Structure formats: structure tokens, C-alpha cells
Amino acid sequence: MDLDILRHSCSHVLACAVKELWPETKLGIGPSIDDGFYYDFDKKEPFTLEDLKKVEERMRQIINKKIPFTKED
Predict the structure, then answer these.
(1) Angle 13-58-67 (CA atoms, 0-180°, nearest 5)?
(2) Which end of the chain has the smaller Cβ count within 10 Å, N or C?
(3) How far apart are CA 56 and CA 45, in angstroms?
(4) Residue 61, phi then psi, degrees to nearest 5
(5) Which residues face 27 on adjacent strands?
(6) Radius of gyration of the chain (CA)
(7) Which tens digits make up the pLDDT trace of 59-71?
(8) pTM of the model
């Protein structure tokens, strides 16, 4: 699998996890970059270390569902 595609897909999983945990959070941009990916979120309170652990666990749960990714034009 192409690394850029993997990073792009991971950014979608990250956004999904954050929205499931904090539905009121607004999504900014979430591109893949040379050494990974990131996402900008507009959330009332900053993320805590505990929040990040929750996000990581939720991402693992989403990935373990093995939901196929498809590209739509």
C-alpha cells in the first residue's frame, strides 16, 4: 500500500474517532504530510494526555472493524 494513502486513511480514522468521542468538535484540515499526518480540531477544551489515550484506543477499535476504504470521485 502506498504510504501517502495509508497516512490519508489514518487521518480519516483520527477524525472519526474524535467526532465519536466529542461530537461537538469541529473538523479543520487533516492532510497527510511528509512524515505522517495531522488534523486541526476546534474543540472547547484542549486535548489532555488522557484524551489522546482515548483517541488512540478509539482509532484501534475503528481499525479493528476492518471497514473497507473506497475512493469516490
Answers:
(1) 50
(2) C
(3) 18
(4) -65, -45
(5) 41
(6) 13
(7) 999 999 998 888 7
(8) 0.87
The runs of H, that is alpha helices, within the chain are 3-21, 49-64
Q: What is the CATH number of the domain that holds 22?
A: 3.30.980.10
**What is the 8-class DSSP label of residue 28?**
-
In angstroms, the Cα distances linking 32 to 10, 44, 52 are: 9, 25, 19
Of 2, 13, 4, the closest CA to residue 69 belongs to 13
Query: What average pLDDT does range 9-34 have in this prediction?
Result: 93
Question: How many domains does one find in the chain?
Answer: 1
Domain-located, residue 72: no
Domain that holds residue 53: 3-64
CA angle, residues 21, 65, 36, in degrees to nearest 5 = 70
Q: DSSP assignment, residue 41? A: E
Amino acid at site 27: L
